[in-house]
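Students often ask why we bother predicting the structure of a whole assembly rather than each chain alone. The short answer is interfaces. A chain on its own may look different once its partners are present, and contacts between molecules only exist in the joint model. In this exercise we take two input lines together and write out one structure for the complete complex. Read the inputs first and try to guess which parts will touch.
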Amino acid sequence: MGDKESSATGTVLFVDSIKSMAESVGVANLEDEAAKELAEDVSYRLKLVVQDAVKFMEQARRTKLTPADIDYSLKIKNIEPLYGFQVDTSTPFRFASGGGRELHFMEEKEVDIHDVVGAPIPKIPADIVIRSHWLAIEGRQPAIPENPPPQSIDLQRSECVDPASKLAKGNKSNGTGSYTPTVGKPIKFKSSEQVFVKQLATHELSVEQQLYYKEITEACVGSEETRRTEALQSLTNDPGLYEMLPRLCTFIAEGVRVNVVQCNLALLIYLMRMVRALLDNQTLYLEKYLHEIIPSVATCIVSKQLCGRPEHDNHWALRDFAARLIAQICKTYNTSTNNVQTRITRIFCTALINEKSPLSSVYGSIVGLCELGPEVIKTFVIPKLKDVGDRLELCLEGVGHTQADKASCVKIRHIIAKYVAPIVKSSRPATDTLEDYKTEFGYLAQVLKTQDAKAPSSTPAPGILRPTPQQSIPATQQHTSSASKPVMGAPPVPVRPTTPTTPTLPKFTVGSNVVVNSSGLQQQVTINLGEGDTYSVPTGSGMSLRPYISPPLPRAPCAPTTRHISVIRHTSASSAVGTPRILAYPRRNVNLGSPVASNSNAPAFNLNFPKVSNPFQPTTTTTAVVITSTTTTLTTSTRNIND
Amino acid sequence: MEGQGMYDNRASSGFMPHQQNQQQVPMDTSNSAGQNGLPVPISAIKTEDGGTVGGSGASGERSEKQAVMVVLGFLKKHNFKQTEEWLKKEAQITESESKMLPSDTDVQSVLSSYASDENPDEYSSSYFQLKSFIDSSLDTYKYEVGQILWPVFVHLYLELVYNSHEVKASTFFSRFSKMQETFYEADLVSLGTIMKKEHLINSENPFRILSSSLTGVSKPGNSGVYVVRMSREALSLLKRFLQEKRLKLIQNIVQDRIFVEVYDGIPRGKAAAHVTAGHIMGEALRHDNKTKVYYGLLKEPDLQNFQMDEDDDDAGTGGGGGDKDSQSKTADSQKSDATTGTPAGTQSEKSSKKKKSKKEWMTNKKAKNDPNAPPITRMPLPELRDIDKIEKAKALRESAKRVTLSPERLPSVCFYTVLNGDQQVTFIKWSEDGTLMGVGFASSIIRIWSLTPAKLKKLKQATDLQDIDREADDVLVRMMDDRSSESDRYLRGHSGAVYSLDFSPDKLMLLSSSEDTSIRLWSLLTWTCLVVYKGHLFPVWKAVFSPHGGYYFASAGHDRTARLWATDTPQPLRVFAGHYSDVTTIVFHPNSNYVATGSSDRSVRLWDCVSGNCVRLMTGHKGSIQTLCFSTDGRFLVSSATDSKVMIWDMANGGLLTMLHSHKANVYSIAFSKEGSILATAGLDNCVRLWDFMKMIEDVISEEGGATIPPDVKKISGDNLLVGEFYTKSTSVFSLHFTRRNILLASGPFQH
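Now the answer. The structure tokens for the assembled complex follow.
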């Protein structure tokens, strides 16, 4: 009768189970009737035992029933406990089927007693210790590593997917901290016209947070490597960064924009390390900020020039690093709705197929695509190999090309050998000769073929995501579409890109029109890159991040520092008042913007900064340029204030 | 038979237990749990003192006789020959009848009432008719009448099983078990285990409790019949239906096995009917909660005089101060006797007073006596020793520095995480002043941590102690061995998991209860075990000290009893029996005159330590009770259960005040801030929640007369009073404690 019972309440053991148990203890051919009788009795007793065992579990304040509970339960029934079932971890049940029978069993390995005796004594378990921390201070939970992040990553994610969820939860979440029963109450339309709109995010940073922000940003782009390590460590591990995320992302985005123009390789690397740290932070969900992060990272991959002396500096490392970041972003945040990977792939393809794009950009796009996995390589890189090969040939064999270009060519060849060759090999019949390769790949055939022979073991990064159909849009079309897209952060007076659920007007903005540094002080910090290159960068919470691309203005005197402070106060005041926000915001399409390339003769796909002109382009004396930039910045901000 | 163990070395102090009470628990020494063995005879004896009147014709002549038979069996078994003869004579029982008496088993005789020759097919159809009748009846009565569905279901099923219609029983069960209310899930599981007649007779059968009520001899209230409260209209509706349809089966059950307490008034709705459901035996009767409970606090001893004594003289005169205290105490008690009025009339006075009381207490002015406080002589309490006074004075000084908490001013929470202790830690307890933290482990070890820089020292050896100058000022310091100072210490002695700990108020002793059925008293000076109290036959779930002086303590165990002990006697002073399942937790009332117990039969009871009677029965939880805590003013009791609900009860009438639903998992700790304005709860859902308790009770105080059943359904949920919610990362919270300065301490093991 038990066979038919599916409910947990009336179940008995299966007759078959009883029979197989009987077999295991040496009773063959147990009669059905007996087995049934046994099954009922055994189930009854088992249930009684478990019922009491649950009491022991409850009293021990656990939710997991342990063998010890069963033992105790047997003990109070005056039954000898079953010894030897004490295990630390849960006992895995193995499953086997065959001969029409399905069986769950516990694996019992035969153990050689000598092995047990001879085995080294297991490590003594760690002693039980007590550690104290403040769970709450006067009703507020401090954001320390011991406490859970104020905004859990799941919550952040659910907010990304469904911004309305925040409204629904408005009532509960405000339980912490201040107790204001009015918020979230149903709006009474009849009695009053006042509408309670809950601020969706607190965008005021506390003094501590402001200090933290200042310290972190200074340390990240500052000269001291030890401080930087600490700061990055903090960004990676700190659970309370959620509130500061908009600022940090803007900081990075602006920083990249400025430093790409300045070709300040060191700072770009620092900023990318910040991105890395934020990505690695387990408590943050960055989807809302991808529109700032992706353009920045993509810039560091495909930009024509990332350093002052492309022939000497190792900007390739930055491109590789940033490419890995992009891959990580795609892996983590790609969804069917935001199509992050599709759009990133499109950016790289555009750069790759463009005849005019500089070789360094070609390198970047190849690396970027390669990092996205073998499927992407097959679909997008391999068909282009011939064209790329032609360009390389032209550059390497031809004349009139700079040393830098040549270096690029070598690098491209190398990267193709490393990533693409194994894929090509696996996708083509082994019988192919070099000639076959040549017809297919042209100039690069040699590289691919020899690499095959040389290092067949080198495998590319594991596939991340398969390319989606949209990716095969004709490149030209993509090109135009990306160019005509409204782009983020377009100076001179940009509408600051904001995440829809995070209202603008933060107290602390790293934007083109508000100065970050509350102290108003500007310092010159010298960065030693080790190779004798010395960069001088104004810091003071990232002073080099001024929107450098604004139209050249007449040099105006530096604005008095008081101005800046007043600006900050102003914004903070306005933010305190708060303006009703649009709650539902069409935000499924994260505007990825497009990568920034710094030079005036930048590839056409980059139309972000139409006014970018090269006059600022430094040659060797970076210091001078930095100073200029600082001045420009200040003027910009001053002007905006006056507006 | 050992429950009667009234250890009477205190007869002179008037601490004589009431006589009937001794009969309360015949602990059967067989393997079966608790008072299960002989519930019926006892209740039969106790009819007078219960004083209840079965309203629904619960006793027929047949069953009366049966009861007598059972008693006879009991007498025979224990060889009370003369009594047996007398009883036979008086009850006019012939020899032939007495031979019918089943030899060993009252159980069987109890169950024999299930014997029935009804057509087994009728059960299903009868129940189905009842069910559809209730479903189709008016909403007004639906839920009230619906309350009988569950007991009728149980009895029909058991009857089927008893009459060996196993297959029919199984189909009946599977057909209707899904229709029962969700909160009977646990009962359904245990009911489902009974599939055969033998199971029913088996002494371990959890449903014996219900079946024990079947004879109908037992009077409702004390042991026995499933209780349903119903309005008059609803009952007449039901009766009419049963008569019309001639559902004899159900009619029998409703008559014999369900006690319907009728009340006049509007029938309750769904929420109101459900909120008090859940107890294994139905609801509490009005009569259960009628006894007056002195829930007020005892007067705090006047410590200012003492402090002066302390300053002026040396410790030698402390005894004199104590005498003075006791004198003033008696005077107070006389006064309080005089002023004790009826509780109803004085409640407004109390409420207005309550707001002031804190200030008065702080300034130590002559407070008016609490009309609800028990007379000071009601329960003999140990006199304050010097060490208690020092401690109390310290507490008073500390309390002057206390932050007064309010919803606008929430406490700081200091969390002590026990690392590497996942799955091993079973209990955490703080000393009252928050300086010591005791942790009980499943491995039977107890560890005490000092949370202050002060190390835990051991007393010197006896030979060394002899050399100490006893007159020296710092004799207490000299007694301790400096070499032995450690920041944490082990107490080893138990042979099973330690399930509870409690520090004595003077911090010199520790009480622990364990799976090994013993309670141990430890000295925190010598760090050794002082006494092992053996009395419980099964694991002891909880042991707590009385708040007055660490003399009395109470314990609760798997044997379905709670016991009251004194540290100087090896046997319990009182055995509180009445719960139908494990007594999972116990707590002293702040005035030490009462203990509250929670059980896995899903009820909370309040027992009078003096008389040993159950004076309050509170039902409504849908899972086994886990924690209890009295409010600081002693009027309210907060309970939590495995249904992860928190319920607040009014001791004045046993009514449910409010219910907190916010927790998502078992709540294992409840604490009140020192002035009683903030309630903190926490448990396995890794969250400490703070509630505005003042607001919670505001309505009650203003309404007069306390919470009544049925309360306004909307008010039942107190979730809007949540004022703080603090999640831990991955640490379940086992213990909460407010320090004297109102800092909330919380603790739990980190889960990997």
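Check your guess against this: Confidence is low (pLDDT under 50) at residues 1-8, 169-192, 455-643 of chain A.
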